[in-house]
Amino acid sequence: MDPEASRNARQSLELAFQMSNILETGLDRHTLSVLVALCEKGLNPESLAALVKELRREPQTNSTTTSAAPTFP
């Protein structure tokens, strides 16, 4: 990636992160960058938003608790 494109990408992510903070989404920069990249790959943003909401609703499990299926933070 050329320096200009890299700088534009960083600025775009920073702007998206500022908007995310204003909207109080609770997303960190890394998570936001992953979600943006998935959208750029063609995933539906509304589906991703629903997935994030669902993952946040799931109860957090203790690391010592045995579970049949893995859970995501």
UniProtKB/TrEMBL annotation:
Keywords: Cytoplasm, Cytoskeleton. GO terms for biological process: gamma-tubulin complex localization; microtubule nucleation by interphase microtubule organizing center; mitotic spindle assembly. It is found in: Cytoplasm, Cytoskeleton, Microtubule organizing center. InterPro entries: MZT1 (IPR022214). GO terms for cellular component: gamma-tubulin ring complex; interphase microtubule organizing center; spindle. Coiled coil: none annotated. It comes from the Eukaryota. Belongs to the MOZART1 family. This is Mitotic-spindle organizing protein 1. The lineage of its organism: Eukaryota, Viridiplantae, Streptophyta, Embryophyta, Tracheophyta.
